[in-house]
Design goal:
Blueprint: H1 5-14, H2 38-51, E1 58-63, H3 65-76, E2 81-87, H4 98-112, H5 119-131, H6 136-143, H7 146-154, H8 169-178, E3 181-186, H9 194-203, E4 207-211, H10 218-221, H11 224-236
Parallel strand pairs: 1-2, 2-3, 3-4
Helix pairs in contact: 2-3, 4-5
Length: 238
């Protein structure tokens, strides 16, 4: 899945030996091409999966809101998925913090009326990334791709009609039974309560990896290779 020249170049360079599929994200606000429900999300992902030249079940890896989208697909099309990795999920295993949500909405509102590239935008970025327990300068340095970071910032004010939901104990257990799932989360996660998330995930018998001194963007706050190794270990043990 890719959109934009930068992402296309990145995929071509880093994954030149893998097969790729380019799909447009459903346009928010377009009644004919919007994603407003779990069913919409599952159907859109199915379009992406069907466009791939493979027949075997896929591995779903979702980060933040993407983890929720992954759960939507797994629950509707479990036979199409082999395994699932939830990285710092927005909801799914715990409700979103109302205090963090307020700050996210405030950040989006302020970002939408702030000139690009100025000190105000820089200050907003430091503040918002700080709400997720992330060192702004460290994150920028580890990102490694200035164009991708700039594109991420421009999405700060984006809105979506679809709101992520917390799954109840039965739904979590059923999902993990249908598709073995790994939860990766920082112990200083602020978008959801990490203790609640870990407890719910373990109750559903999911695999869990926790990261010390890390928040929502744990893969940049800890050695990135550790996250990669944890995913590889999960995929190789099943």
């Amino acid at each position: 899945m890719a959109a934009g020249r930068f992402t296309q170049r990145l995929l071509l360079r880093r994954y030149r030996h893998h097969r790729r599929s380019r799909q447009e994200l459903p346009k928010d606000g377009d009644p004919d091409n919007g994603m407003v429900s779990e069913n919409d999300a599952a159907e859109w992902i199915m379009e992406v999966v069907d466009s791939l030249p493979i027949s075997q079940p896929v591995i779903m890896l979702g980060y933040s809101f993407g983890a929720y989208l992954s759960s939507c697909f797994v629950r509707k099309y479990p036979t199409r998925v082999d395994r699932q990795v939830l990285m710092a999920p927005a909801c799914v295993v715990a409700p979103i913090s109302k205090w963090w949500l307020f700050r996210a909405i405030l950040f989006g509102a302020l970002s939408s009326c702030t000139p690009r590239g100025g000190r105000v935008e820089e200050a907003l970025g430091r503040w918002f990334f700080g709400t997720m327990g992330c060192d702004y300068d460290n994150f920028k340095a580890k990102m490694g791709y200035p164009e991708l970071f700039e594109a991420t910032q421009r999405l700060g004010a984006a809105q979506t009609k679809m709101q992520p939901l917390e799954l109840d104990a039965n739904a979590l257990a059923s999902m993990n039974g249908l598709c073995p799932t790994l939860l990766m989360i920082g112990k200083k996660e602020s978008v959801i309560d990490p203790k609640v998330a870990v407890a719910n995930a373990k109750r559903a018998e999911m695999q869990v990896v926790e990261y010390e001194d890390a928040g929502h963007i744990f893969y940049c706050e800890n050695p990135r290779q550790q996250s990669v190794d944890d995913v590889k270990a999960f995929l190789s043990m099943l």
